[in-house]
Amino acid sequence: MIQSTMFEEVIETVSEPLTGTEHQFKDLQDGTEYIVRVKAVNDEGSGPYSEQTEPIKCQDKIEEERPSFVSAPEETIALKNSKVKVTAEFKGVPTPEVKWFKNKREIYAGKRQWIETANGTTTLTIDEMRDDDEGEYTMCKMF
After folding, report:
1. Where is the Fibronectin type-III domain positioned along the sequence (predicted)?
2. Which residues span the domain enclosing 105?
3. CA 134 to each of CA 8, 77, 105, 129, 130: distance values in angstroms, whole numbers, following the listed order
4. CA nearest 78: which of 136, 128, 138?
């Protein structure tokens, strides 16, 4: 037997025999939180209810989309002491996390460099280019 409750009100009781460990509830309201408890019922009788779950929010299933770059940064040559911005666009569902690397080492924001990522665009900005800024800059997209 499976019961789903909403604010202590029983909204569905499943009494037909179930096999396996999964059950799909019907007619749930989008945006509503539900708590689920289960108990075993068989020819010998019924057991106690399980502990209730944490609230589970009902929402439409989100179709996933593999992360990919829409536009990659162009090769950039910068003059010493100049400010450089390198931008790329990406997409994916859920929104991927993008990290920047210089010579295969992750770049972190600092006094002269920062990374801005929002709405499918990521930008690496380096202020006052120096000789030690020379290198291969790459990105990696992650879930």
Report:
1. 1-61
2. 65-142
3. 63, 9, 13, 8, 8
4. 128
Report the pLDDT value the prediction gives residue 7, as an integer from 0 to 100: 52
Q: Are residues 42 and 93 in the same domain?
A: no
Across 29-58, average pLDDT = 84
Q: What φ, ψ does residue 40 adopt, rounded to 5°?
A: -85, 135
CATH number at residue 42: 2.60.40
> Does 53 share its domain with 69?
no
pTM confidence score: 0.58
Helix (H, G, I), strand (E, B) or coil at 132: helix
Q: Which two tokens stand for residue 78?
A: 């910068």
Residue 124 identity (one-letter amino acid): L
Q: Burial-class residue 84 by CB neighbours within 10 Å (0-12, 13-18, 19+).
A: middle
Distance CA(4)–CA(25), nearest Å, equals 8
